[in-house]
Fold this protein.
Amino acid sequence: MYKLVGVVTGEVKLHEFEFVVTGEVRLNEYVKVWTEQDGWILARVVKLVEVEKKKATAEVIGYKDERGFLTQPDSTVSRDDKVFKADRAFITETLGLKSGGIYLGLLEGRNIPVYIRKEELIQKHCSILAKTGSGKSYTAGVLIEELLEKSVPLLIIDPHGEYVTLKYENRNEEERKQMEKYGIAPRGYASRVVVYTPANFSINPNADRLFRIDGINLSVKELYDLFPMSDAQLGVLYQSINAIKSQKEFYTIEDIIKKVSESKSSARWRIIHYLERIRETGILSDSPTRIEELVKRGQASIIDMKGAEPDLQRLIVYRLCKEVFEGRKMGKIPPLMLVVEEAHNFCPERGFERAASSNILRTIASEGRKFGLGLLVISQRPARVDKNVISQCNTQIILRVTNPNDIRALSKGLEFMSSEMEEVIKRIPQGVALLSSPSIEMPVLVDIRVRKSEHGGRAVEFESEEVEEVQTSKRGVLARLFSISA
Ligand SMILES: Nc1ncnc2c1ncn2[C@@H]1O[C@H](COP(=O)(O)OP(=O)(O)OP(=O)(O)O)[C@@H](O)[C@H]1O
Ligand SMILES: [Mg+2]
């Protein structure tokens, strides 16, 4: 009944043993060994060598104790013990794999689906960290597809305009061939995805609607968050806004520019310059996009910020985060998942850049769960993302990371990281992730399923530079205005 794959040999350690391979064994394969003391012990093949004989090294994962907890054995396996291929039921039970929920892919080395609980994702936040090109956005797309199918509202901060392709079914031939293995079928989500642009339809022809923020009664703090100011500049702005407030109940950026122009201080020029830049982007409006329109059951709203300057992007993220947080607190909108791509730009670690959106993202990370506001943060520079945000994410999806600073940051920030784990994540192949989640007993490697919908990162690769050039010139003056350089 059990499939024999080898016999324990050499020196056995508490957490590791070697065996001579007699059956079929693959790297990352799960195996089991019977011990007198603890019963069946689960282990995973971490090394395969073939010199005279084929030998494998297996890392001990543990066994399920009477209380149902995954436990590290106190005793070692013995020489000449038989090593069997671990069966599905034993793996599932020992690792505590659940069925149903958010389907992420297959347990690496085995055909066992890995799920995470929807509630854990939303209530306890999630991060996807890895080096560039390793599949972060692809994996985020998988999570988004799953959440969309469960009708969870999504608000997606999309700096590169990659997520619009969620509308279309996956056309990649290679990936379509793999769908059967993962038990899925191609699917587009056109009826559920709404793309917003903070620019306009000539700059972003992919957009469905305009995104506008409230330009009425901007406060000194909001403006200060938006651009760096000297004390003298801050003083002028403060006086001007106070003077307007004493005359008017509602004021616009136009009123602020006018009042600042009346100042005698030479600091006024710089402020006027900044205020005019904001005005020219056209983002401010007296009929702003309502948060109730953005956050709806069964809808994914994508804020496609392609072409917007970093400062403007941070202002947008700041306003959005503030509104979803308050909206949830007051029960104006349903529980949702907020997806933040390139998180290092919006909640940078102290000592790196300053961002208007930092504080509110930190608040959402620490308090969002109380209000059903889940966060999915994605970054290629783990070391540059606010540690307070990362440490609040209970589900961690780590793809390949090679930068030593980033590996150090991960080790410091994540409880489950060990030196073996560090080695593992340096070598993870593309499309495979190390998953740590409250839904499973211990971190496992997951072969992330292929996307049902088209992946946007790839569409960008296909766009030839020629095409890009023509589009840029067509977009013309407005495009330049929208990303006015400082
Ligand atoms: N699970 C997967 N299955 C199949 N292909 C994948 C998978 N993950 C990633 N890929 C491939 O890898 C490429 C890069 O992935 P992706 O765009 O998600 O990288 P990224 O980590 O977001 O990069 P960047 O840092 O540049 O944003 C994709 O175009 C896709 O072809
Ligand atoms: Mg990406």
